[in-house]
Design a protein that fits this description.
Layout lengths: L1 H11 L2 H13 L10 H9 L1 E7 L6 E3 L2 E3 L1 H13 L2 E8 L1 H11 L2 E2 L12 E3 L5 E2 L1 E6 L16 E4 L4 H11 L6 E3 L4 H9 L5 E5 H7 L6 E6 L4 E2 L3 E3 L5 H16 L1 H10 L10 H26 L3 H12 L19 H6 L8 H18 L6 H14 L1 H13 L7 H7 L6 H4 L10 H31 L19
Parallel strand pairs: 1-4, 1-5, 9-10, 9-11
Antiparallel strand pairs: 2-3, 6-14, 7-13, 8-11, 8-12
Helix pairs in contact: 1-2, 11-12, 11-14, 12-19, 14-15, 15-16, 15-19, 16-17
Length: 487
C-alpha cells in the first residue's frame, strides 16, 4: 500500500512532492522496487534459508547435546516457521557478516547491532537490548568511571557495536585510545585481559555473564553508553517478503512471552558451574542424599563406578533434585536430554530411579568409547568432561594438546587445552569448532570436590556408628591415642 502511494506521488505531484516521496523511499525500509515476495519465493524454491552467524556462546555453537545458542534457536524456529531447512555459515567474525549478507543472503544473525542507514542492509525489529560493558583485570585499582580508561591498554571487537560507545566517549576524552580486532572473539579478549596483555576491554553485558566463570581474574566494571538493539540483517533490493515474515515471527515471539523465556534460558543463568560452599552442600547431603543412596548404589553395581562418584555427578548436575530443569532444557536428577534418555531407554527423565540409571549407563558408555591409551583417573576425568561437553569436543581438545606438545592421554594436558576451544585461533583448526571449553574443566573439578566431601562424610558416619556399637563396659578412653604429659 505504501509503495503504491509513493509511486502515485512520483507520477502525479510536482517536483517538490516527488522529492518528498523519493526521500520517503530512502527513509522507510519497507519500500522496494522489486516484487515484495521475491526473496522469500527464492527461499521457498530452494527449500532452505542460509544464515550467516558466528561460532560463539551467544550465537551458535555445538553444545553438550548438539547445536545450541540463543540466535541458533531463534533461527531454527524461524526456519520451521517458514517451512524450510536451516543452512548455517558460522565461519564469520562481526566484520564479515554484512558483506556476506549483501552478496549471498539470506540473513545475518550474529549479535548484530541495529545501525539504521547501513548501505545495502535492512534490519528487522529489535530482538534484545545489548549493553556495552567495561571489564578489566583484577588488581587494577580505580577503574570506576569512563575517564579512568584513558591511558589503559584497551580493546574491543571491530564492527560489533561496542566501538560506537567508545567513539562517543572519545568526544568527551579526545586522548582516549583503544584497539579494535577483526580476528578475535569475546573469549579471546577476556583471555588477554586475564593474562595481562590488555588492561581492559569493552564487550556486551550478556557476553560477560556467559563467560565470567572461565576468567576469574577479570572484573565487571561499569556500563558504557546506551544499550544497542540486536537485530537480524537482510539484503535490501530483493523484495520485502522475508523482512515482513521475520518481523511477524519476532513480534509473535515477543507477544507470546516465548522470547522472554528464551532470553532467561540463555542469559538468565550464569551460576550453573558455581561451586556450592561446604555449608550448603552438607545441608543438601543431610536432607536429600539419603533418598537416592540405594539408587546410586544399585547403578554403581551395574556400571562399575563408585556410588559416591555417581552421587557427586548427580549433585553437580541437579543438586539431587529430580525436578530440575537446566537453562538449555535438559532435566532430571542426572540432567538427561531427550535423545540421551531415548538412547538409554529412559521414558521419564523426572523419575529419579530412571534418571540415575540412565546417567550412570551413559557415563559408562562414554568411558568405554574412549581410546584404550587413556587409563586410570585420566580416563575417568575425560569421561566426566565428555558427559559435560561432548566426546567430539574432548577429541578436539586432545588434538590441541598434542599440537602444543602435550600428551593427549593425560587429563593434566587436556585440561589445559579445553579452554582453548573458546579461542578462534584454536577452534578453527578442529572438527567441532567453538566450545565453552572452560566449562568441563570446572565441571570435573567440582565433581572431584563433591566426591571427596561425600567420602569424608561417609567415613565419619561409619566411624561414629562404630563408636555407638562399643560395649558399655569397655573403657572409652582406650578408643583414643594416649598423649604423654609434657616434662
Amino acid at each position: 500500500m505504501l509503495t503504491l502511494i509513493c509511486r502515485h506521488f512520483v507520477r502525479r505531484a510536482s517536483a517538490y512532492y516527488a522529492l518528498i516521496a523519493i526521500t520517503l523511499l530512502v527513509m522507510v525500509p519497507t519500500l522496494s522496487l522489486v516484487p515484495p515476495g521475491e526473496h522469500l519465493a527464492r527461499i521457498s524454491a530452494k527449500d532452505f534459508i542460509t544464515v550467516h552467524t558466528r561460532n560463539t556462546p551467544t550465537t551458535y555453537y555445538e553444545g553438550r547435546h548438539g547445536p545450541t545458542g540463543f540466535e541458533y534457536e531463534l533461527m531454527h524456529r524461524f526456519a520451521d516457521y517458514l517451512g524450510v531447512s536451516l543452512n548455517l555459515d558460522a565461519s564469520h567474525h562481526p566484520e564479515s557478516v554484512l558483506p556476506a549478507v549483501r552478496e549471498n543472503g539470506d540473513i545475518g544473525a550474529a549479535a548484530l547491532p541495529l545501525l539504521p542507514g547501513t548501505p545495502g542492509i535492512h534490519y528487522t525489529r529489535p530482538i534484545i537490548q545489548m549493553q556495552p560493558l567495561v571489564v578489566y583485570r583484577r588488581g587494577l585499582n580505580g577503574i570506576q568511571a569512563a575517564g579512568d580508561l584513558v591511558g589503559l591498554e584497551l580493546a574491543t571487537l571491530s564492527e560489533a557495536g561496542t566501538g560506537e560507545a567508545l567513539r562517543d566517549l572519545q568526544r568527551q576524552y579526545p586522548e582516549l585510545s583503544w584497539k579494535e580486532s577483526h580476528e578475535l572473539e569475546v573469549a579471546e579478549l577476556l583471555s588477554r585481559v586475564e593474562d595481562g596483555t590488555l588492561d581492559a576491554a569493552v564487550i556486551f553485558e550478556h557476553q560477560f555473564r556467559l563467560n565470567r566463570l572461565f576468567f576469574p581474574n577479570v572484573e565487571r566494571g561499569f556500563t558504557l553508553g546506551d544499550p544497542l538493539s540486536m537485530a537480524w540483517a537482510l539484503p535490501s533490493g530483493r523484495g520485502l517478503g522475508l523482512l515482513e515474515a521475520a518481523n511477524r515471527f519476532l513480534r509473535d515471539l515477543h507477544e507470546s512471552g516465548t522470547l522472554d523465556r528464551l532470553v532467561s534460558r540463555y542469559f538468565g543463568h550464569d551460576d550453573y558451574l558455581e561451586y556450592v560452599g561446604t555449608r550448603t552442600f552438607l545441608e543438601h547431603l543431610d536432607e536429600r542424599l539419603h533418598r537416592y543412596t540405594d539408587l546410586f548404589k544399585q547403578s554403581a553395581k551395574e556400571t562399575g563406578f563408585d556410588w559416591q562418584l555417581l552421587a557427586a555427578v548427580g549433585y553437580q548436575e541437579s543438586h539431587w533434585d529430580p525436578e530440575a530443569v537446566s537453562p538449555t532444557g535438559v532435566r532430571g536428577l542426572m540432567m538427561l536430554t531427550n535423545p540421551t534418555a531415548s538412547e538409554m531407554g529412559i521414558s521419564n527423565r523426572r523419575d529419579a530411579a530412571q534418571s540415575i540409571d540412565g546417567g550412570a549407563r551413559y557415563l559408562r558408555s562414554i568411558k568405554d568409547r574412549l581410546p584404550d591409551s587413556i587409563t586410570g583417573d585420566d580416563r575417568l576425568y575425560m569421561a566426566m568432561a565428555s558427559y559435560n561437553v561432548g566426546l567430539g569436543h574432548l577429541y578436539d581438545a586432545r588434538k590441541i594438546a598434542e599440537m602444543r606438545g602435550g600428551d593427549p592421554d593425560s587429563w593434566a594436558d587436556v585440561r589445559v587445552a579445553l579452554p582453548l576451544l573458546q579461542q578462534r585461533e584454536w577452534h578453527s583448526q578442529t572438527r567441532h569448532g567453538y566450545a565453552r571449553g572452560g566449562e568441563p574443566v570446572i565441571y570435573v573439578r567440582n565433581i572431584r570436590r563433591y566426591y571427596e566431601m561425600i567420602q569424608y562424610v561417609e567415613r565419619s558416619r561409619q566411624q561414629f556408628f562404630q563408636l555407638e556399637q562399643t560395649p558399655v563396659n569397655e573403657d572409652p578412653l582406650l578408643l583414643f591415642d594416649l598423649v604423654p604429659p609434657l616434662n
